[in-house]
Design brief:
The structure is a homodimer.
Chain A: H1 16-35, E1 39-40, E2 46-48, H2 49-52, H3 57-63, E3 66-68, H4 79-84, H5 87-94, E4 95-99, H6 104-113, E5 122-131, E6 143-152, H7 158-174, E7 178-184, H8 185-195, H9 201-225, H10 230-240, H11 246-256, H12 261-280, E8 285-288, E9 299-308, E10 317-322, E11 336-341, H13 343-353, E12 366-368, H14 373-388, E13 393-395, H15 402-411, E14 416-419, H16 422-427, E15 429-434, E16 440-444, H17 448-452
Parallel strand pairs in A: 1-5, 7-8, 12-13, 12-14
Antiparallel strand pairs in A: 2-4, 3-4, 5-6, 6-11, 7-9, 9-10, 10-11, 14-15, 15-16
Helix pairs in contact in A: 1-7, 7-12, 8-12, 9-10, 11-12
Chain lengths: ~450, ~450
């Protein structure tokens, strides 16, 4: 019996139009990656579960897609273990492999495994899908692409500057106006240190972030609720009321952090990154934003996020510096900094702002109408010549009704239709119809490519 | 404790050099796909097992990678079922999804699912990895890319001609000399019909294929062993002894098949495909080869395979016509024809023949040496200008020893090293070293891009 076909929830098919748009994004990013000297790697879709487990927290372990061992997957499971129905323990026995959850852990694994062949500092980029067994919802998928760039083996702040410049170049090319929000984990640690409430740093950043919405009193009430002392709340006030230019905000914060060595190190790093970025110039707005925290707890220095200025949407790129990415695989102390472009959200932004260039349409440039054997055979020669000249072309494969053939050209927005009937065959010409203007013109066969160009 | 990292057997990491070479292959194929008017689609890595199971034979079902259901995967399994330890039955209960095994079944599923949005004839291409739980061995992987092109919704032989022309264009660009071997399933059916041994057609094609190696007597002995009658063997002799040009071979076969309607239809199809291919011209050798059978039993017309002429290796591309690809998904009678480029084997051929162009190296064009803060800051401006002009460039991020910085340039075969020291800083120049010739030259800052181009 015939099945009604479907795909797993949270996954997507991409049609030719969607592919053309996605390729436009990936190609734009990839071109900048290359101009900036990042080198591409790819890693397998499947990693050993021992590589993946424990790297994304307990919740992350649950969200890994696990692959059932081939053959007799129960061979190492006793009857007792089976009867226990402990799914977590059973999973470890019947699954050895899982699907890539992000590109960061596989990259760390790659660096350690290939350490003897890699020249440090290593600038790598990687564009591949990842899989997460998240609950699917609008804009969140179980299969999606990540586009990552990282520099490892150097703690120079020039790397942060390079990534900011890269972000600026990519979004300038795409025509998306952005703000790059920058913070530094050392600054956040410094604030917590000065307030003597190191474990509350997340609550504090959340509060800073809300000041525009709920005002100073609201924020203070919330902080109080979280168990932060009145004295600490009072001392935090200048941070909550930060305003002015990046330099002014940083100056205020520097005064606040003057007794925290870590905090002042963070201030110095931010100043350097901002100064060098300004020195080479950028189209993006760059904002020092001390409410930016980012969830991943392996970040140790600069953290950044990119917001689109003209569309309401979450961050479209993010990243930061880490000091010990590869430690868990036996290679401690490797410093690096990386960013990840969110291709799916960038796709949504370009759609909403209608920013796709017209020429990325996936259609061929010229469709030859098929009037029957003799005419088709003549058309084949022209089709080949056009393709050889770098102009995409195709012959309608059947001598179908003219209307049907023309509707392919219309539906697929093919710009030129070429007609070779009896009279064209006799005098070696092609009648070329410009589908945008409706204009028809007789062109000598040998001049077809030049004419279309 | 630190883990010694590894990847699942049969999978691969790709280093920047390998990626550059693979991209060269994929880009070359993709460019021709586009010039020929094929449109790209992508499908999810995971398909429902109901889509995949039963499509690749019993052996194929075993080779599918299955994904363990998330959460309590045992919730629909009774204690009794568990105790039975029937792994096949259990798999169906604990796994709903599997990894893509090829691009053909997902394409069939895609066509049916999107039938209302697709214009027929539909020329699609798809370049994505597939996964098979095969025993890994030299040249056979558990994750590998397929590059498929298909035309569905038209039974015109012009589509076969289009694909042959596409194959010719791709391998011409890659510089690989090839033979395209063509046969037709209707011809094979005709031979079996004439000999009255329809179930022995595979044995017969295998025998035809061996004639060069074991001679007529050896082949006849083998046929006899397979239970083919002496009379049939005698009648088969002219087919076994086929020689001469394509036209001569076909003429001999046509005489043999004259009473088989199916066989003669196959002969006519082959003649048309060969005649039209010759009419538009090709670099490839095209051989009518009646020993070509191809395993997949959904083929119904033309079948073809591509062999590299200068390397001993299996077929590097193959395909054929099918009449009922989508029937199993409830859309009967859709005719199509498709081919699949074997990227991994093409990679091996290019490696063995050393055919990669030099310019595909993955390195940047210019490395700026870092002499310290002031010099680095000046270099950043030049780096940005070069990138803006489409020339890849990077600054070494640390003011490391000159020797270390130069070794990056050497190891990665970076063609130019740019030096900005105190004197260059003073007079606004850059000293540019051509790493191939060792030549050094002082270039005005503003003329750097032009100079490198």
């Amino acid at each position: 019996m015939a099945q009604k076909p479907s795909i797993p929830k949270g996954t997507r098919d991409f049609t030719p139009l969607e592919m053309a748009r996605r390729n436009y994004i990936f190609d734009t990013i990839r071109e900048q990656f290359r101009l900036f000297g990042y080198k591409q790697i790819e890693t397998p879709a499947m990693e050993n579960l021992s590589t993946l487990m424990g790297k994304y927290g307990e919740e992350g372990d649950k969200l890994l897609f696990k692959i059932l061992n081939s053959g007799d997957f129960l061979k190492n499971v006793s009857d007792e273990e089976l009867a226990e129905r402990n799914t977590v323990r059973l999973t470890n026995k019947i699954c050895e492999k899982g699907l890539r959850y992000d590109l960061t852990v596989p990259f760390a694994r790659f660096v350690v495994q290939h350490r003897n062949d890699l020249q440090m500092p290593f600038k790598r980029f990687q564009i591949q899908p990842v899989w997460r067994a998240d609950r699917p919802q609008k804009g969140r998928y179980r299969e999606f692409y990540q586009c990552d760039a990282d520099i490892v083996g150097s703690d120079s702040l020039l790397n942060e500057v390079d990534l900011i410049s890269l972000i600026d170049a990519v979004f300038s090319r795409l025509g998306i106006r952005i703000a790059i929000k920058i913070n530094n984990r050392k600054v956040l640690s410094g604030i917590a240190e000065v307030l003597d409430c190191g474990d509350k740093i997340v609550d504090i950043t959340v509060a800073i972030d809300k000041i525009d919405k709920i005002g100073l009193e609201g924020v203070n009430a919330e902080l109080s609720e979280k168990g932060i002392t009145d004295e600490a709340i009072e001392r935090l006030r200048p941070i909550l009321e930060l305003s002015g230019t990046n330099e002014e905000k940083i100056a205020t914060l520097a005064a606040f952090l003057k007794d925290s060595e870590t905090g002042m190190k963070g201030i110095e790093e931010m100043r350097t990154v901002l100064r060098l970025s300004d020195a080479i110039g950028h189209n993006a707005q760059i904002d020092a934003d001390f409410s930016l925290a980012r969830g991943l707890n392996y970040y140790t220095g600069t953290i950044l996020e990119v917001k689109a200025l003209d569309v309401e949407i979450g961050s479209i790129t993010g990243g930061g510096r880490y000091d010990n990415l590869t430690g868990v695989f036996g290679m401690p102390g490797l410093s690096g900094v990386g960013i990840s472009f969110g291709a799916d959200r960038i796709y949504d932004v370009l759609n909403q702002l209608n920013l796709y260039p017209e020429e990325i349409s996936s259609s061929v440039k010229v469709l030859f109408i098929n009037f029957g054997e003799k005419e088709a055979e003549a058309a084949l020669g022209y089709v080949k010549a056009l393709r050889g000249a770098g102009i995409s072309a195709q012959l309608y494969p059947d001598a179908a009704k003219m209307k049907k053939q023309m509707s392919l050209a219309n539906d697929e927005k093919i710009p030129y239709v070429a007609i070779i009937g009896e009279s064209e065959l006799a005098d070696g010409t092609v009648t070329l119809k410009n589908m945008a203007t409706g204009e028809q013109q007789s062109v000598k066969g040998g001049e077809l490519a030049d004419h279309i160009r």
